[in-house]
Design brief:
By secondary structure, this protein is α/β, with parallel strands linked by helices. The chain is 38% helix and 14% strand. The protein has a single domain (3-304), classed as 3-Layer(aba) Sandwich (Rossmann fold). The longest helix is centred in the last third of the chain and has 23 residues, at 282-304.
Amino acid sequence: MNIKQLALKEELFTGGHRLCSGCGAGIMARQALLAADTPVVVANATGCLEVATTIFPYTSWKVNWFHSAFENAAATCSGMEAAYRSFRRQGKIKDDIRFITFAGDGGTYDIGFQSLSGAVERGHRMLYICYNNEAYMNTGVQRSSATPRGAHTTTAPVGNLKAGKTQFRKDLTKIMAAHNMAYVAQAVVGHWNDFMTKVQKALAADGPTFINILQPCRLGWGYPPEITTELGRLAVETCIWPIYEVENSRYKINRRPKEKLPVEVFLKPQARFKHLFRPENAELLKSIQAEVDAGWEKLQKLEAAQV
């Protein structure tokens, strides 16, 4: 994508919102809307992005925007898309419009999964973007099924009996790929060109599409706000969060680290993982590295099997 041309486009997500300094959600939303080449309608689940950008009587959204509850943003967006198609058939609307749903991991992996899966199964033409900060950050940093093993949260705390969350996170991207969608992808805040290109591909597809973007949260993760994009890139270089796409059921890895870094490079800057570097948690840290290594090998095999 040409960054000079992007700089000339109208900003559809404005400044002046109340998101935290260094919050990846605002970066993600701005880039997603800049990538759109047609008018868009946005459905937004309850969460950090929603509450911090629409404090009455202000809004950061210069598009048609609809707020839904945690559990039904995909259903809301699918209803709007169905109404649009009906109006197009009747000749009441001639504009080429796209539909985007934004929801966090709590409203996607957990509470909203049923409406997301249903909307995809019905075939609505909509892009669903999960801005994944790996916990319920808006309501107090509770664990979600997107929270990685070993992370400290308020409902999976570090203590005498447990060293944070004991379970590995759900692999939602592959679950969505199993829906046989036209386009599914993983991205990170920090590789803007990769993410925006994926948004354009998803919006061009004739059917439901899904992007899972890892979005560092400086409050819940515990890091200096100026390294948000760096953390996103480190997630890729350690293969904790590979960036890839599944287009018509074919896997393609978008970035291979020249030198795969150990997971501790990504974990150490974050307060939620500081306990992993105590001597008593050495085996847990090893098991996290082993899980990441195994996941990276599986992803490479999926890609290779389709060449």
